[in-house]
Amino acid sequence: MNQGILFVVSAPSGCGKGTILSRILKNKKFYYSVSATTRQPREGEENGVNYNFLSKPEFEKLIAEDAFLEYAVYCDNYYGTLKAPITEHLSQGEHVILEIEVQGAMQIRKLCPDAKFIFIAPPSLETIRERLLHRGTEDAETIEKRIRQAETELNFKNQYDYCIINDILEDAVSDFKSVVRAEELKIQP
Amino acid sequence: MNQGILFVVSAPSGCGKGTILSRILKNKKFYYSVSATTRQPREGEENGVNYNFLSKPEFEKLIAEDAFLEYAVYCDNYYGTLKAPITEHLSQGEHVILEIEVQGAMQIRKLCPDAKFIFIAPPSLETIRERLLHRGTEDAETIEKRIRQAETELNFKNQYDYCIINDILEDAVSDFKSVVRAEELKIQP
After folding, report:
1. How confident is the model at residue B184, as a pLDDT?
2. A144-161, pLDDT tens digit by residue?
3. CB proximity A186 to B under 8 Å
C-alpha cells in the first residue's frame, strides 16, 4: 500500500482556513491531526475532536517518552502534536492534515522532509479585517492585533511549498484538491 | 507578469497522449511547441501546425546559430526544438507544452531545470496493444515493435516529475489540470 502524504497547513486567522479544511476533510482519505493540550476545554469543545485534552503530568510524561513531533508552551499551557497517530494513518495510506501556526510548521519542516507545506493566504490584509468584523466575535483591539499577527505570518509564506489565496471559496477548495492530486501523481525520487 | 511554466510531456504511442493534450490545449493559457524537421510533410500535415518544415540548409544554419534547445537525427532527417518561441511565450506568462520522446526530454532536463516533466503511461502494455489494434492503422509487426518500444520508454518514467496513468480519459485530463494548477500555486524558492 502507498504511504499517505502529510500536509502541513498554516494560515493567519480570518483566512477561511477552517471552511476550506472542513470541505477537504469530507473526503475519507484524509485524517485530521488533532493537537494535544493541557489547557482547559472551552464550552462546546470535545476531547479528541478539537483537542486531545491532557493533564500536565500526562503531557510531561509524553514529552519524556519523545512522543511529540513538536510541542510548545503558550500562556502556561502545553500544546503539541503527537507522532503516533500521524505515522499510523500515513502507513495506512491515508493523507494527514496537520493545521499548525507558522513556527510549529517550521519545526516540522526540519523533522519531516517529505511533508508538503501549504500556506493559505487572504487576498489582502483588508479582507481579514472585513471577515473578522463580519464574524463579530472579536473587539476592535483584538482585530487589529490579529491583523498585525497576520502580517507577521505572511512573511513566512515563502518557506512553504504552496500558497493558496482564499478569495473565492470554491476556487480555494479546488486549488487545495489540485495540490493533493498533483502530490499523489508525483514520482518518488 | 508571471513567467509561464514549461511542461515537457512524453508518452509511449498508444497512450492517448494526443487526446489528452488536445483537451488541455483548448485552454488559451497554453502554447504548444511545434517541432522543426527536415523531413517531407506527409499528406494532411501543415507547416507550423504539425511541424515547422525546414530545408536541410535552413536547419543547419539554425544549428550553427545555437537556435535549438535540442535536436536529433532520425532516418537521415533532423528533428529539433527551437528555443525562441518557447522563451517568448513563457515570458508572456503563457505555459508551454513540449511533447517529446524520452531521450529528448532527458536532454531538456539538463538544460531547463525549471521545466516540469510529465510522463503519460498506459494502465498496462496490454492496453497499448488493444488501442493500436483498435486504431487499425498499424500491422501486427509494427504493433509488436511499438509495444517493445513502449516497454523501453516506461523505464524512463522515474526520471519524470509526474506520472499520469491514462485509464479513463476524463480522469487523466483532470489529473493533468491538477498538475498544472499545483505548479502555478508553488512558491518559487
Report:
1. 96
2. 888 888 899 999 999 999
3. yes
Q: Which residue of A has its CA nearest to B177?
A: A178
pLDDT along chain B (189 residues), means of 10: 91 85 88 93 86 95 96 90 95 94 90 94 88 81 87 92 95 97 93
Domain ranges of chain A: 6-185
**Under CATH, which number does the domain A6-185 receive?**
3.40.50.300
Q: What is the pLDDT of residues B48-98, one digit of tens each?
A: 888 899 999 999 999 999 999 999 998 889 999 999 999 999 999 999 999
B134: left (phi over 0), alpha (psi -120 to 50) or beta: alpha
Residue ranges in chain A modelled with pLDDT below 70:
1
- From CA A180, how far away is CA A25, in angstroms rounded? 12
Burial class (CB in 10 A: 0-12, 13-18, 19+), B72: middle
Q: Is A61 left (phi over 0), alpha (psi -120 to 50) or beta?
A: alpha
* Residues in A 69-108 with any Cβ partner in B closer than 8 A: none
Tally of CB atoms within 10 A around A145: 12
Q: Does B162 touch chain A (CB under 8 A)?
A: yes
